[in-house]
Structure formats: structure tokens, C-alpha cells
Write a structure and sequence with these properties.
Four Helix Bundle (Hemerythrin (Met), subunit A), Rossmann fold, 16 strands, about 325 residues, alpha/beta, 7-stranded mixed sheet, homodimer, 4-stranded mixed sheet
């Protein structure tokens, strides 16, 4: 990735506006917490690890204002990493701006190292030489800083010559799979095919997949995992097909304060994203919609959780 | 439904062009088998029962030409009703055009009666008074002639005052749920919400659904059912949630010549429908895609199959 997804450059947060991909690669410069919250809520920056870095860097922009910090921390409810990143930087508020900035940059650098470690541990965990991987949403460099989580494992497999193909779910409503994952896979030269979300469980049943790899937005203490809507359906399909279902996420995604999945708040992003696709209306005027952005996969359907430190088998 | 989805009017086939809904209600007049095949392949007319009627009426247009009849019969591979409708009318070719037309009109009238019967039998089968129904694709009047199959049951429930709400899957890639099912439900005044396909299994797990009702494109002798892609994922979700999963389809959908689901040919409609949504590109240029239009739900996941004659418990 020649461009970091998010970084601190010359006194401001710089981030790739992911709503414009794959059509345009545009980097935004962000100087205020208000601008950052707006970027987070419209998903210009998204992905649990990247949100952790955004949270930490945002505290630098907040100049110690407790109201701004609290608003940033609550900008999206499901991903625990955002609040975690805010808290890591905010713990250094007493040390002044330089201390906060140093802590935030450490969050960034730790993410880079963690994603590299997850990629290697995940690739070591999987067996076989011509692996066909299924994944949902975008968990690549665009969801982190340099390399990603689940797609970081794919990247490592590809670098090791062990990747046959990726089946990428398009990931309605916002099509992160169609727009972002295909874009990243093309840049890394990895063979891939795009599929409708609903085709995932069926293609698992047909036997063409060796492993499902997903990221996570929050992992409860018992291993129940909140991730992009559609993850649970893949877990059901993987279980029935006997295919390993592996979550790849940094330790910061594990929330020991949440005992199980039923306690995870699931963000509903409203009907607009469902009744339109990239600005084109697809349903009659006045149609009501539900739009849960995440679902919860119960721990009994998860084969392994790979972090930068360990492999957990829930 | 003030307009029949498909009918024989003044010496031609008339059908609603479903690719233009919900924006425009346009009726096409079709005079040749070539035009009819084109309409079938671009899904201007779709839905297993409507395809049966299209097949039968198309034989009238074929004027006894065996090549035209064979091409019509093979226009789409997965829905058995198309071939069945062709065969029903073609059996009367020796009787001349009037005999073929009479047979084709009987296919049409039988469908109208069958859908009414399925609606009543399905509504009788379900228990409860404020039912929340989940469905995929479009199985309403637009998939048949006047009333539909699974959505025909919904219509009967609504007429009996027993329907609380329908959760309609949008049904990528061609969005029949978003475009057609919502349109029909609005016209019948039935409360409904649109959801992304991948949200179906999760909302089943959350406990807000009393039954899943789907149609069928082909039912194998052992009960395995081919239906719109995404049906299998709903079946997995329904099983885990303990929610009845009911197939509603006419007897003509049951193919005793196909022993089980693995023998059903699944149409792949090519990458175009996946990399675009209603004409808008959603993936980078050059992206490869797989596009299975149907999947197969194994019979052990099906609670009941409701036809115009009986309830089958596979």
C-alpha cells in the first residue's frame, strides 16, 4: 500500500476517503474533531483497526476538550476499537499535547506491527498450498493503516505463494467488498472473484472454499463476535460445509467488559443505504427498511480467533 | 392486481416488463418466439409460474416450428416450469393452433386457480394471528398471473387480518425484492420493511420472524428445492432459530425426473449483474465475478412444501 489509510502528517490527520473508491483515490486532511466525526460517520474512514487509530489521533485534534473527546468516542457504537483508541491517547492528557501525540502515534505503529503479526499467524494456522478463501466486507489495508486483518492473512498467503483465489462478498449495503476489497486484491495481484452476499453460503456448500476469514468489530469475552452484517450467514454455511471459520482481529477488539454477544449494541444505519445503491434508488418511494450494519456470530460457530498475540479457540 | 402479469390478448402475448418496475408499469406486446425468449432471458418476465404460462403461450407464437419450440424450452435452465408449460401446450400441436391456444389458456387459468389454492392452504398451515413473515425475491402476482405463491400466502394472511409485517430481502443482484415485492406489498397495503439479503439470517436469530416463506424454481423428487440465491442461507438461519421454513410452489414445480438437488442445473448469469447495480458500476473495471442465480436448499432444512393440492413434509 503506497498510501497509508490513515496517518498524522504535518499537524493534521490524513486519511483516504473510502467512499470515493474505487473510482478516485482522494486523501483528506482533517484539522478538527468535528470533521473527523463526520468522516467516521459517513464511513470515509472505517474498519475496526483504522477506527482505533482515528480515535487516538482525534484526541490530539481535541486539544484536551472533554466534550469533543466524548463525542468522538461515541461516533460509532459497535466497533470497540474507536473507544479503545480514544482512551489510549486520552490517558496521556496530563502530559500535554506532545505526550498525547506520542501515544497516538504508538497506536498507529502498534497497528502496523499487529497486522503483520496476524497475517503471519493466520497464514501459519491454515493448512494447504492452493487455498481458496472466502471473505466479507473489507479487512485489508484500507481497514487498518498498512496491512489488514483477515485480508492481511490473504496478503501473507499470496506472498508465500499459497493463495489460489479469493471469493469476495460484495457486502451490501455499502459494497465495501465490491469497491474496496477487489481494489486491494487487484493491487496485490491476487486472483479473486466477486459474489453477491447471498451466494456465500451456497458456494460453501458446493465445496469450492477452504476457509472463511473475517475481521471483527467487537469480540465479547465468551468469543461471540460482532462483524459486518452477513458474517453470521457465512458462519452457518461454513459450519454445515465443514469449512474453518476464522476471525482475524487485534487484541484491542476483544472487549472483556462485554460478557456475550447479546450485550453488543448493533448500529442500525437507517433506511437510506438500503433503498439506494450508490445514489441510485432501488425501491419505491416511501419504502421502510431495517439496516443493521453488523451481526453477531455465536462463539460455537467460530473455529479460531487469530490476534497478534495468540490463537483462541472459543 | 388490475393488470395480469402475463396474458394472451388479441393474438399476442402481453406481459408486464418487470425490469422497469417500480419506476414504470409498461406492458409489452410480443408477437414472436424470438421476442419472447429475449424477454425471458433479460427477466422482463420471470417467476416460475409466469414462466410456465410464458412457455405455453409461446408455443402458440411458434406456429408449430420445432426449432423455435426447442429454443423457447431451453431459454432458462433452472426453472422447470418453463419447459413444463412448453410441453403442456406442445402436446396439442396435432390439434392445430386452436387446440394449442386452448391448452395454453388452460395453463394460465390453472395457475390462477393454483395460486389462490396455495394461498389458502399456506395461510391455514401457519399458526398465529400477528404473523411476521420473511421472504426473498418476488413470488407475488408478478411471478405468476394474478396472485403469487409465497407472496400469495402473505396476501391471504393479510386479507384475513393475520399479517403483522413482511421482512423482504432485497435480492441481489437484480433486486426483485427491493423493486417488485415492496411494490406489490405497498399495493396490497401490507406493512413491510426491506432488508439487505445478508441481514436475513441475523434477524431470524434475533427472534422477530414467525415463518420464512419462499417460492421454488425446481423441486427435486426428494424435496431438495432450487430457488433464488439466498434461500439456502435463510434456511440455515431458520433452522438455527427454530423458525418454520416453508416452500410454496405449484405441483408443476416438482420434477420427479430429478432425484435430488445435486442434479439441478444452476444458471450462472455472468458477471455483469454483479459488477453493476441498475446500470451503476460498483466494482473496479476488469473485476471477475460469479453469479449463481439460484441455490439449492436440502430437504432436511424445509419444514413444509405447500402446493395447490397438498402439504408435503420432506
Amino acid at each position: 500500500m503506497p498510501v497509508r489509510t490513515i496517518d498524522w502528517v504535518d499537524g493534521a490527520v490524513e486519511l483516504v476517503d473510502q467512499t470515493l473508491l474505487p473510482d478516485k483515490l482522494v486523501t483528506l486532511r482533517i484539522h478538527t474533531v468535528g470533521e473527523l466525526i463526520e468522516a467516521i460517520q459517513r464511513l470515509a474512514v472505517r474498519g475496526a483497526p483504522a477506527l482505533g487509530v482515528a480515535g487516538a489521533l482525534g484526541v490530539v485534534l481535541a486539544d484536551g476538550d472533554p466534550g469533543r473527546i466524548a463525542a468522538l468516542r461515541a461516533a460509532r457504537p459497535t466497533a470497540v476499537n474507536l473507544a479503545w483508541g480514544v482512551d489510549r491517547a486520552a490517558a496521556h492528557l496530563n502530559g500535554g499535547r506532545e505526550a498525547v501525540l506520542a501515544a497516538a502515534l504508538k497506536v498507529r505503529d502498534d497497528d502496523i506491527a499487529a497486522c503483520r503479526a496476524m497475517g503471519e499467524r493466520g497464514a501459519d494456522l491454515l493448512e494447504g498450498d492452493r487455498l481458496r478463501i472466502m471473505t466479507v466486507c473489507n479487512t485489508g489495508g484500507l481497514a487498518a493503516v498498512e496491512r489488514g486483518t483477515a485480508l492481511g492473512v490473504v496478503q501473507t498467503l499470496h506472498e508465500r505463494g499459497r493463495l489460489a483465489e479469493v471469493l469476495a462478498l460484495e457486502t451490501r449495503p455499502l459494497l465495501q467488498g465490491a469497491r474496496l476489497t477487489t481494489w486491494e486484491l487487484a493491487r496485490m495481484g491476487a486472483p479473486h472473484r466477486l459474489i453477491a452476499d447471498s451466494a456465500g453460503p451456497y458456494l460453501l456448500a458446493k465445496g469450492g472454499v477452504d476457509a472463511v476469514l473475517i475481521g471483527a468489530d467487537r469480540i465479547a469475552a465468551n468469543g461471540d463476535t460482532a462483524n459486518k452484517i452477513g458474517s453470521y450467514a457465512l458462519a452457518l454455511g461454513a459450519e454445515r460445509a465443514g469449512v474453518p471459520f476464522v476471525v482475524v482481529a487485534p487484541e484491542s477488539t476483544i472487549d472483556q467488559g462485554t460478557p456475550s454477544g447479546e450485550h453488543i449494541e448493533i448500529e442500525d444505519r437507517g433506511p437510506g443505504e438500503i433503498v439506494t445503491v450508490r445514489g441510485v434508488r432501488v425501491a419505491p418511494e416511501g419504502t421502510q427498511a431495517s439496516n443493521p450494519a453488523f451481526d453477531v456470530t455465536p462463539h460455537d460457530l467460530i473455529s479460531a480467533i487469530v490476534t497478534e498475540q495468540r490463537v483462541i479457540r472459543p
